[in-house]
Specification:
heterodimer, A: D-Maltodextrin-Binding Protein, domain 2, 2 domains, eight-stranded mixed sheet, 14 helices, globular, B: 316 residues, mainly alpha, two-stranded antiparallel ribbon, 2 strands, 74% helix
């Protein structure tokens, strides 16, 4: 019996555990023929092939032109995207700013050669050298580009217009206990985003209302600032019935659960308005956090040529405009804002094109504060465990 | 097979197939190995090796920025598991699993008793279908349906309002720590949904155990002057108890590991299942997720030992 147990143990341990790390290849200098497919990790709704709605299709034409079949794996959170890229096997990922630097420093993505992407020059100048994808990793003084900007947008304050005849001016409706304009308390009637990065929303609120904390960047919080943000979130915990991470559940909660205000994405606002619900959204005086996504390429991308072809395709005004209309986001290519049937010429303004400066984009918190404070900031790892504790009522 | 049958087939040529058959006939141990090899390999590779690797990974830790696993033996992950916030998650899950199990036993026993001892013919079929049918429909659909039933503007609140019982509901929901803004965002609502979802797993083994109690025992008990209550306490309950314990293994372990219901009903507080889902599936911190998975394995190990003492496996 003991012998057979030993055999079983040995057999079990022989099964290989990890894949050996490979040397990073240098960026391509010229494009070869497509490899026939490209595998992409993307946010839900980001890469549509007309299956949900035939009018929204920016995959089929690409497949016909290039012969690269597109396979999409959707991921619901930034953390999930990082996990999928750590597994390998994918070519591209539509990484938000709170994932992109983790991928860069983790050695999971490769710098791209912008010369191979003819449309690079059409990208919004505000995004071309954005710090969440432009990093000087080899230390030669010239920053490398880790991918092409895809879309961006704000985390808006979504509210019920029956409860708020006027748009709320401050995020305090979701942070401080108070009477709402309809004469009832906000306890149990507001929601917040169910993700560690939401700590930045609290920090941004404190940045405006508690200047003595000296917060300059809601993603670079030293210990005192971080604790103040957690205290605010603990106070918010008493108001929030349920945190949202699934867009569908949040939509249902606004319809059936009596939720009247929450941080949200334009995506849910569009869904609820399409359903004729009394819903609108605003960016309050404190500003808003937001996401800016970048199409990044895996260090060992199995189909690099198709990946480059997709990055070029993803910057075409048609794709950018259609996607912005579908997702409620803002195109990374300003040319997409005019002449797109689905987005219409007012679409960019509606989705927040002019609010770029009001938005503090998601980025990965690291121990390095990125300013004269040095390495005293709280890293993302602690954001995760602290947020789990706050949601658990601690 | 008869003697004649064999002699009649003696003619075919000595093929490879025949020599293979002969080999296995002469070496009964080889037969055993050949039959068991595939299932054993499956067992070892798919079950044991994955569990072992999971336990192994729980002794690793992750790099805090890039989230990549550092494959070096350390107890840091288990230290992390013992932080108050994570202990909360474990306690919360165990408390919910215990509450659901006890409630399922209390609700399930009378139903099982009725099915086993009184229901006959069509009624029995009807009861069986009633218990089993929900198991054939999608789990997700049933949970989402409950979200609608329990929601603030859902049918249950409407019915209570019609009956003038809104005050009672508010009083229940104002109970500290298990209450909430509405049934669908409170632990009470989550408890109701868990109870609904796992109840069939309690009823079926309990009912099977009750069926096995011989009628003659009950008659003998009555003949010796025991009242029905005493017969129930002294004869039926002890004989059916292993069935209840067997059912409780299902309700307890299923509640302990579930991650879907806490994601849809309740106040977003983490349970073991949702913590594993978050740390593994979305945060990519495999070591912590693995350590969290070891917890219910340990709890269930103890639970099964106790269940064995209580005779839950005697009928196996």
């Amino acid at each position: 019996m003991r012998k057979s147990l030993f055999v079983i143990l040995v057999l079990a341990l022989l099964i290989p555990l990890s894949i050996a790390a490979a040397q990073p290849p240098a960026p391509l200098t010229e494009l070869g023929p497509g490899e026939g497919q490209v595998d992409i990790v993307a946010w839900p709704g980001y890469i549509e092939s007309g299956e949900t709605d035939p009018a929204y299709d920016w995959v089929t034409s690409f497949e016909e032109e290039t012969g690269c079949m597109v396979n999409v794996k959707t991921a619901a959170t930034s953390d999930e995207m990082v996990a999928l890229m750590n597994e390998g096997l994918f070519d591209l990922v539509t990484a938000s700013g709170d994932a992109s630097l983790r991928l860069v420093y983790g050695g999971r993505v490769q710098p791209i050669n912008t010369d191979l992407i003819p449309s690079w020059g059409t990208v919004d100048e505000r995004l071309q050298n954005a710090p969440w994808h432009t990093v000087d990793t080899d230390g030669d003084g010239v920053a490398e580009h880790y991918g092409t900007p895809y879309q961006w947008g704000p985390n808006v304050l979504m509210y019920n217009t029956d409860t708020f005849p006027e748009a709320p001016e401050s995020w305090n409706v979701v942070f401080e206990e108070q009477m709402l304009p309809d004469g009832e308390s906000n306890v149990g009637r507001v929601q917040a985003y169910d993700g560690p990065i939401y700590i930045a929303d609290a920090a941004q609120y404190l940045m405006f209302h508690n200047p003595e904390l000296g917060i300059t960047n809601p993603y670079a919080l030293d210990r005192d600032q971080f604790n103040a943000a957690l205290d605010l979130l603990r106070q918010q915990r008493l108001l929030v019935g349920r945190y949202w991470h699934d867009a569908g559940i949040q939509v249902d909660d606004f319809i059936n659960e009596g939720v009247v205000a929450s941080s949200s994405w334009p995506f849910q606002v569009n869904l609820l308005q399409a359903d004729s619900q009394p819903i609108s959204s605003t960016i309050p005086q404190e500003g808003a956090t937001g996401w800016a996504d970048t199409t990044m390429m895996h260090i060992n991308a199995p189909h690099p040529n198709c990946a480059y072809l997709w990055m070029e395709h993803s910057l075409s005004p048609q794709v950018q405009g259609d996607l912005a209309a579908w997702f409620g986001s803002v195109p990374a290519v300003p040319a997409a804002c005019t002449g797109n049937e689905l987005l219409t010429d007012t679409g960019c303004a509606t989705n927040g094109f002019d609010n770029f400066d009001l938005i503090r984009f998601w980025q990965t918190p690291t121990t390095s504060c990125g300013d004269e404070r040095g390495d005293v900031c709280v890293p993302y790892y602690e954001w995760v465990t602290s947020f789990v504790a706050v949601i658990g009522g601690r | 097979m008869t003697e004649t049958g064999i002699t009649l087939r003696a003619a075919p040529p000595a093929s490879l197939w025949r020599s293979v058959l002969r080999f296995f006939y002469r070496h009964p141990n080889a037969t055993l190995i050949a039959l068991l090899a595939l299932p054993l390999l499956w067992m070892v590779v798919i079950y044991f090796s994955s569990i072992l690797q999971m336990v192994l990974v729980s002794f690793y830790t992750t790099d805090s920025l890039s989230g990549r696993i550092i494959p070096k033996f350390t107890l840091a992950t288990y230290q992390q598991l013992l932080q108050p916030a994570n202990l909360d998650i474990i306690l919360r899950s165990v408390a919910m699993a215990a509450a659901v199990t006890i409630a399922a036993a209390i609700v399930g026993f009378p139903i099982s008793y009725y099915i086993a001892r009184y229901a006959r013919g069509r009624t029995k079929v009807l009861f069986f279908l009633g218990v089993m049918m929900p198991l054939w429909s999608s789990y997700l659909v049933r949970v989402y349906a409950w979200k609608l039933i329990l929601s603030n503007e859902g049918i249950l609140n409407w019915v209570l309002a019609q009956l003038g019982l809104t005050g009672v509901l508010d009083a229940v929901l104002s109970i500290p720590s298990i209450g909430g803004a509405s049934l669908s965002t409170s632990y009470i609502g989550m408890f109701v949904v868990f109870l609904y979802i796992w109840l069939p797993y309690m009823i079926l083994p309990t009912q099977a155990a009750l069926e096995r109690v011989p009628k003659s025992y009950l008659e003998a008990s009555a003949d010796m002057g025991a009242r029905p209550g005493m017969t129930f306490r002294k004869v039926i309950l002890p004989l059916a108890f292993p069935g209840v314990v067997a059912g409780s293994i299902f309700t307890f372990s299923l509640t302990l590991g579930d991650y879907i219901i806490p994601g849809i009903i309740g106040n977003s507080a983490f349970f073991i299942g949702s913590a594993v889902y978050t740390f593994y599936g979305t945060a990519g911190t495999f070591p912590l997720a693995a350590a969290f998975t070891v917890v219910p394995m340990a709890i269930m190990g103890v639970y099964l030992l106790i269940a064995r003492k209580l005779g839950a496996f005697d009928a196996l």
